[in-house]
Amino acid sequence: MNRWIQDCISVDVETAGPYPGRYALLSIGACRAADIQQQFYVELKPDRQDIDPGALAISGFSLQELEKTGTPPADALRDFACWLDTSVNGRPIFVAFNAPFDWMFVQDYFHRYLGKNPFGHSALDMKALAMGVLGKGWPETGMSNVSAALGEPLQLEHNALRDAQDQAEIFMALMERIQLSAT
């Protein structure tokens, strides 16, 4: 296995809406792609109150409940950064299924609360990777299509940790296909 894969971190988030300028990040789930038992999960206290009812219906979160039980965002991001420091040997590589969505929230919150993003300014998008590895068009790169093509049908549960773990398994299966085709 390529050494850099050991630094890949599968990340998923649940949010109160479609973009971080207006909507809160509600939970972060992450795991090492090569070892899904090395994991991180946090639910955040909302730092703004705008909601997209559809987003909350998907995640099942309540902003009122997270006000009481959520971790303050600065503490949550500090904990996530500490976990990243102990989980990889090099610079962590952000990996996600539809990375632009998840990365924009993680990028925004890391910069807002810590002043820097441990992942840097890039992310590995598994939808784009699946297009190349599986020869699929963009409309065929949803989680259910890609996981079925790899022989392990999965559906998003909209629990950030569980989804990050499922995504990690898909990522590793895609990487295995790349390695097999290279030999």
Major sheet:
5 strands, mixed
Overall pLDDT confidence: 94
SSE string: EEEHHHEHEHHH
* CATH architecture term: 2-Layer Sandwich
Low-confidence stretches: none
Q: C-alpha Rg, in Å? A: 16 Å
Question: Tell me, what is the CATH class?
Answer: Alpha Beta
- Percentage of residues in helical conformation: 40-55%
Oligomerization category of the chains in this entry: single chain
The N- and C-terminal alpha carbons lie at a distance of 12 Å
How many structural domains are formed by the residues?
Answer: 1
Q: What is the approximate shape?
A: globular
Please count the beta strands (DSSP E, at least 2 residues each).
5
DSSP strand (E) fraction? 15-25%
By CATH, the topology is: Nucleotidyltransferase, domain 5
What is the CATH superfamily label?
Ribonuclease H-like superfamily/Ribonuclease H
Q: Within the largest sheet, what's the order of strands?
A: 3-2-1-4-5
Number of helices: 7
Could you say which structural class the secondary elements and strand pairing correspond to?
alpha/beta
